[in-house]
Amino acid sequence: MIETRAFKVLSDETKMRILNLLVENECCVCEVMQALEIPQYKASRGLINLHEAGFLNMRKDRLWVFYSLDKQGLTDYRLKLVEAVREALKDNAVTKLDKERLKKAVRVGAGCHRGRGKPEPHLHSADPGNSVIRHNK
Fold this sequence. Notes:
Elements: H1 5-9, H2 13-22, E1 27-28, H3 29-36, H4 40-52, E2 56-61, E3 64-69, H5 76-89, H6 93-104, E4 106-108, E5 119-121
Antiparallel strand pairs: 1-3, 2-3, 4-5
Helix pairs in contact: 2-4, 2-5, 3-4, 3-6
């Protein structure tokens, strides 16, 4: 049987953008929502799909769930796919904005639901070096 899950998950622009954020940062759902300016369900589904495809670690801390790149567990071909995504998006205007918004993102309330609880500032060392996802035809 051929492993296709990793390729399927990366065929989606939003999931590529999420993976690109998580190459250098650990994030919760609300931070991904704010950085990509997407609804909660889309951020959650993207993170879960990337986790199930073997790209991400999931860490729970009380009510928070944090996702990061699974640097230890990535197979060789998944690592090559991560590098391909990173290379494809390095000069992308959209992903550059994603990383800039991530720097300003806040962790909000229990379970990361926007608008509930006291915001918790997020500290990132995001790389500002990225530039509109172009679809080559």
